[in-house]
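Reopening this one. Same input as before:
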Amino acid sequence: MEINTSVLCDLYADAIDVVEPIFTNYGGAFSYAGEVTTIKCFEDRGLVDKVLATNGIGKVLLIDGGGSVRRALIDAENVQLAIDNGWEGIICYGAVRDVDLLEEFDIGIHAINAIPVAAESREVGDLDIPVNFGSVTFLPEDFVYADGTGIILSPEPLDVEV
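Same output, byte for byte:
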C-alpha cells in the first residue's frame, strides 16, 4: 500500500496529528501504516522482542525508548522477527543498529539515530500504554501513517485510497 502523508495532511488536516520531523527512515519499505501497539522501555529490548514475536498483521509497533541513543532497541534480528509475524512497521523513539542490513528488509522502520551497541533484554517496560514524543500522544489502537516525508497519527483509520 502506497502512503503519501502530504496528501493525507491536505485531506485530513483537522483530524490528524503530525509528529515532529525527528526521525530517519531505516527500513526498505518507504511507506507503511497500521494500528498502533505501544511499548515504553528504556535501553531494554526484551518487550520489543516479545511483542514482535506476536501477530502483527495490520499493526505498527511504536516504541518509546525515552529518546536514548546509547543502546539500540532495533536490529536485524528483531526486524526479521517482525517480518516473520507480519508487522507493517516499527517507529522507535530511540536507536537502531545493523543499519546496512535494515534497509534490505521490506518493512518500514523509523528511529531517531543509530548506534552499534545493543540494548539489554530483560523485558523491563510497559505495554499498551499512552506514550508521548515528537509533540504527539500515541494511544494504543490509534492509526499511524508514515513515509519518507513524515509520520502522522489519527484516532480513526483514514481512507488512503483517495
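So the earlier flakiness isn't reproducible anymore. For the record, The first strand starts at residue 17 and ends at 18.
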